[in-house]
Every structure is written in structure tokens, then in C-alpha cells.
Amino acid sequence: MLNFIIDYIENTPQKMISYADYIQQALYHSEYGYYMKETEKIGPGGDFITSSNVSDIYGRTISKWFQRMAGKYKLPFHVCEIGGGNGRFAKAFLDEWKLISDEEIHYYIFETSPYHRKLQQEQIVFSEQIRQIDSWNEITPFCGLIFSNELFDALPVHVVENRNDQLYEIMVTVKEGKLAENTVPLTNREIFLFLEESGLSLSNGQRIEIPLQMEQMIKSLSAALSQGLVLTADYGYTNEEWQEPMRRDGSLRGYYKHSLINDVLEHPGEMDITSHIHFDSLIRMGEKEGLDFHYKMRQDEFLLSAGILQELEDHYDPNPFSPISKRNRAIRSLIMSSGMSTAFHLVLQAKNIGKK
Predict the structure, then answer these.
(1) What pTM was computed for the model?
(2) Does the pLDDT of residue 4 top 90, yes or no?
(3) Beta bridge partners of 290
(4) Which pLDDT belongs to residue 258?
(5) Domain coordinates in residue numbering, the chain
């Protein structure tokens, strides 16, 4: 992949590309991209862990939550999960649905990675009602729930920096046979527009990621959704939080064998690349596309409100490796202040339904 990226850059007229272009190639190139290759990414043998892979309790809790929301808003039992990963969330969701409802559910996984599609097929029995899709056209117009877990943080982003009250874009180039940064005055009008509409202002010396692809994703899913809910689980910051001194270097990071890598130009195609999302802009862009904002809630608070404590087994089991003990530990890890859930938020948006 490194040689491909170097050739790719050397063949551009400016001999440099944006960080967004670099991330697009490093993660999503059809042959060399990290998400496209047949290597384990999630779990102990991969590079990172997600909430849905801590335990099946995460997917099961959201399955129960959706059953209540569908009844509340009179929605059909239709779910589209964007980017299903290894399929563990979908399996947990569907397994729970069989226990709590006699109603037939339609569940679609929007997945473009051949490797992840294969993993999902090993977990889930697909049918006419439960299937993988690779285009919104296959289900448009859609009515129901659109769900994503750590989708927006994996989208390519541009990187800008304020130096002496002038904005620059950080580009990726090749120096002495290695990938390196190059700084040029900012000329991208879409980035200027994003900063203007978001109300963000960078302090001197501050670097930040600009998620132009986020708006395109929101436009696409809103166009496909005729009526229903959009539930987004991810980590990120509000505009106010972006202004805090500890954020001045931005949030672009890599994860390689469960180690955090600050320089995302290392290991191209071999590690995950991620950045914290702009929650205020996610909400603003959604409103612009007809998605009404209902709430933003920390993940542990959401799971508590969704009834996760009801899943705790209240009797003591002295065997720490028993299914009950493992389940109880998983629940506690998702709701404890020291757990991973406090870093995540869930944003609920809706289209063509009222707030009840």
C-alpha cells in the first residue's frame, strides 16, 4: 500500500494530496484499503474494539429500544444498519427480536466491504427480509430505523490549521521516499463554507479536521428515508469542546494492534484511521436535510434509559467465567464511568414524525 500511495501522489500535478484523499485510499481502496482487505480488524486479534463487540447485550438493548420506538411512532419494523462490521451487532439485535416480538422484521446491512460481507454471512442467516445491500436504491423509499455505530468517525477528513491568523490546509506529500506533510494556504471553498456555517473559529496554532464527506452521507441517508428515525452512535466534540486547549492538535489518530498511533501516515492500509466527529455540525446538517434533532445522549446514559440494568442477573455466581458472570461484567463495562461508553454519544434524529 505504501508504494501505491507514493506513486499515487507522485502522479498528481501538485505532487501532493489532501488528507481526505489519503484517508480515502488508505481505508477504502478496493484492493489495498484497510477496510477492504481480508484481515481481522475488530476484537482481540484486530486493531480496535467497539461497543457491539464487548457483548451482545449492546445489540439486544437497542433491539428492545427500537421495538418501543416503533410502537410509539407507528413505524414498520424495518432497520437499516450502515457499515455492519463483523455482523455481531446485527446478530444480537435479530436474536433478541425473536425473543421479544412475533412480528417479522426487515433488517438491511448497508455494507461495501467484501471482507465484512463475508464475516456477516458467517454470523447471520440472510433471507428476503434480512439481507445485505450496497446501494440506497435497493430500499428507497425507506421507512423505519437507520442505525450506525462508529460510521462518521471513519469518513475521510481534510485537515486545516491556523498559523498567525491565516488558515492553511495540511497536505500529504513525499519527501525522501517517505510520506510527509506539506502546508499550503487554504483555498478550498467548501472548507471555508463549512467553517462559516458551523460557527467554528480556530485559535492561533490550532489544527482541526473538516468532515466534508459527513454532509454527503447525511444527504444520502436522508434522501433514502421517507419516514423514521436515525440513531447515530459515535465519539466526537461539540463546537464548545473543540475550543478547549487540549483539542488544539486535532483528533486524527490511527489504531494499530490496539495501540494509538498519532502519525496516521504510518502503516497506510494496515491500520484504522479515525477522527472525532463534529456533533453540532452533524445535527445542523441533519436539520438542513429534514432530520429533526430529538436528543444527544452519552452512551451509558442512553443504555440506562433503554433499560440495560434489567439485563443484570441478580444472583451471585462464584464462577467468573460463567455466562452469567461474563454478561454482568459486560453490562457494567458499558455503564460504568470508567468504561468505554462515556466516550460515546448517541444522537437521535427523525424525519416526518413528531416528538412525543
Answers:
(1) 0.91
(2) yes
(3) none
(4) 72
(5) 1-33+158-210+239-272, 51-154+212-235+276-351
- 91 CB-contact burial (10 Å; exposed 0-12 / middle 13-18 / buried 19+): buried
18 by Cβ neighbours in 10 Å (0-12 / 13-18 / 19+) ranks as buried
Mind giving me the DSSP string for 224-253? HEEEEEEEEEE-EE-HHHHTSGGGTT---E
The fold for domain 51-154+212-235+276-351 equals Rossmann fold (3.40.50)
Distance CA 160, CA 192 (A): 10
- Is the bond into 211 cis (omega within 30 degrees of 0)? no
Strand positions, DSSP E, 176-298: 178-185, 207-210, 225-234, 236-237, 253-256, 259-261, 272-274, 277-278, 292-298
The rounded radius of gyration (Å) of the Cα atoms in the chain is: 21
Strand partners, 169: 160, 184
User: 41-57 in b/e burial notation, b at 16+ Cβ within 10 A?
Assistant: bbbeebbbebbbbbbbb
Query: Please, how many CA atoms are within 13 Å of residue 230, restricted to the half-sphere of its CB?
Result: 28
pLDDT the model gives residue 47? 45
Would you say 1 and 269 are in contact if contact means Cβ atoms under 8 Å apart?
Answer: yes
CB 271 within 8 A of CB 254: yes
Residues 6+ apart with CB under 8 A from 85: 41, 42, 50, 52, 53, 116, 119, 149
What's the confidence (pLDDT) of residue 343? 84
Q: Alpha carbon 97 to chain centroid distance?
A: 23
